[in-house]
């Protein structure tokens, strides 16, 4: 079984490209900084995991994901190789994302961005509250987290 579950912060905005042809397919690539559970000599450390998503999942990443945002993904590990321009064989390992979701509230994300100035310019821009968005899902208004008893 090849199943991966990760939670971490985006190191940069997703890079999205579209395949050529009649039915263009969105392909999003991003890197997750995943904290290691145990610290060496009291210092935090992280692994930087390359992820790729396709189709609607990639379009969602393009629209809503920004540097510093904490997300959770599930998928599978895929390895490959290619020969670069110098004739060297390069080996790759990445997670092919099957599902992805936000791993924190918008207010938590905003407070993280405020405490990490390098990310503040890239704070996630979520849709404004309205009855329903184009995809038929209702947008959750800002500040509702404070009203919930189980937050």
Automatic annotation (TrEMBL):
Chain residue ranges for the region called Disordered: 102-151
Indicate whether Zinc-finger appears among the record's keywords. Answer: no
Check the record and name the SUPFAM superfamilies matching this protein.
Nucleic acid-binding proteins
Q: Where is the composition biased (Low complexity)?
A: 105-134
* GO function terms (MF aspect): DNA binding
User: Organism's domain of life?
Assistant: Bacteria
InterPro entries of this UniProt entry? NA-bd_OB-fold, Primosome_PriB/ssb, ssDNA-bd
Task: Name the UniProt key words of this record, in alphabetical order.
Answer: DNA-binding
Q: How does it assemble?
A: Homotetramer.
Q: What is this protein called?
A: Single-stranded DNA-binding protein
